[in-house]
Amino acid sequence: MPAKAFSQQLNNEQPNEALRQKAYKQLESLAGQIGSLHSGENRARMGSNIAESLWIHNESRARELFASVTREIKAGLQRDEKDTDSHHTVKVFLKLREDTALRIAMHDPEWALRFLKETKPDDIKTSGETEDALNLRLAIQLAASRPDLALQLGREFVKHGTSPDQLELLYEFSKKSPDTASAFFEELVKSLSHNNIRYDEENQKFALMLARSFKSRPADEPALRALMNQFIDAAIASECSKKKQPDNESNYYCYRIGLIIPLMAKADPARVAPMKHLARSSSIYDWNPEYLKYADVYRNGSVDDLLAMIPEYPEFREFGQDVVIRKVWESGDFDRARRLVDQFTWKPSSKQDVLKELDRQQRIANEDTSAELLKEAEALRDENETFFYLFRMATEIGPNNPQTTVKLLDRASELLEKISAEKWQTQYQIGIAIRYCQVKSDRCFMMMEPIVQKMNDLVSAATKLNGFDNRYLRNGEWNMTAEGGVGSLLTMLAQNAVYFALCDFDRALAMSSKFERREIRMMAELKLAQGVLQGPPRKPLFADEEVGE
Asked: Fewer CB within 10 Å of terminal CB in the chain, N or C?
């Protein structure tokens, strides 16, 4: 069970200003306590997090904290002959360096670049690919606010190769700065050749994704034509005009380009004419950029934004309509959802399926369906399956119907001990507590009391085993990573602190004070304050998407 899975449940509640001020006050208090920590790693991690969260409220204090973090990271990346695990130490501080650069870039991009130069270790070999990847992540983050700087970083990466992440940068450019997108598209095309499109499978996939991901403008025609000619050259070499190719490699290539035959024909009709039999429509097994854009707009845009996409992607009309209907019913406006269903054009069976799902969702939201769900659960093969069914249904219903959710969680709690492994029991115990928080049930904190005590016991045991299975301590303090079973459980709590904070911030702070180790207690208080300021995560379109930290 991924620890992040619990972050996927949507909660529309936004914190009020009084609560935000409480969170800022807590962050200011924590900032004053950083110096009491013994571990440079913990000082850097706490300082970097607090500085990012404080920036809007108190920029000068945030800058002071980032400057202090810079010194900690530089010191942490210095070779220490006394460190028996120096390789791991360097790895940790390089990750802190990366996280801090991205946090600074949100507010001061030029400083973020200076920070990277200032903290790049001289006597520690770092992979060029690692630095390139970090610069690309910075570019993606800056694409909307500083497209000029993002393009500069993106061009540097192109010099060293291609990566699917470059397509994400291209997409971000296309949303806010079409001219920058065109310039970057041209750079990417120049980095390819017909040979590496034909023989290098990764470059071939990248080129196909590039061809299909970018909706070109007239200014992009020369670069697009150049890309298509590379595909045509490789297709001719692979004998794609024939019904059967000379080898499997050529056969696969000819099949894959079937998706872009219309684009190739537009670039050179005469050379592509013998290959038109290869043309095919995309399937669910193909990479489809339309799905990615729908997922982005669903999470970050409005219903009107989604409606505007339907005519833009006619081949994905029904998928787009489904996404719109889902967005509307999740807002609770079932009447509008039904009006839209009637206005849309569907295949004969699709409309009835959508209406049936609408009825189900409305019933879930408006009626207590716990009795029938409990009956279905009890009819399953064993208590283990019953638990998982109730847990899943409680997750699906969530705040849409607190009454039903609480009843399902109550029964699931009774079956929790049926989960065989104790580690999984603890994870699901935390998961149930989180779901109680989402529906504002008092059981949220009642369940957390024994969980906190158990975590104290596990941390105490882990410190005694430090170095046998995982290195939990550094400079005598818990190292705050997700390593090991105990570390993953603490990280799980941290990633979902927002739900405890929004349920009852004061009570959540009081609960965090029961962590026995000071550094864990401070991190818990930090995550609660950050949860208030950042708010609940946006719900993803696809169930397997995970919300980041």
From this structure: N
